[in-house]
Amino acid sequence: MSTSLNPYLNFRGEAREAMTFYQSVLGGQLDVMTFADMGGMGVPDAESGQVMHSALTVSDSVAVFGADVPSHMEGDFPNGRIALSGDDVDVLRGWFDGLAAGGTVNVPLDKAPWGDWFGDLTDAYGVSWMVNISGAGDSGD
């Protein structure tokens, strides 16, 4: 079982360009999914080609994630959120529940369109967290 902590960068229409730049500097493998790749996910047609999720895997211990924030999501998205990921269901579910205490769950930890379990929250101190559990099966355990 494993877990990892990764920076998750937010952009407004520049995620692909930025992540490609980071790859040119850091090396590694860049994987990109657009909103269109995931069935549109409710973004305007003009934004469907933007990045829903990208992962730059540099090594076993270094990865940078990034995405475009759709125009319908109002607010200031300071560049960065913290992403917790891996396949240790008990640890990651416990961290999600613990971080959510006193905070706000924006997206409940549940089955995601890409097959993993995903949740998003803002903790009691205003820090944004995303949790992705890979290989969790249909029930998240």
UniProtKB/TrEMBL annotation:
Pfam families: Glyoxalase. It comes from the Bacteria. Residues 9-130 form the Glyoxalase/fosfomycin resistance/dioxygenase domain. SUPFAM superfamilies: Glyoxalase/Bleomycin resistance protein/Dihydroxybiphenyl dioxygenase (SSF54593). This is VOC family protein.
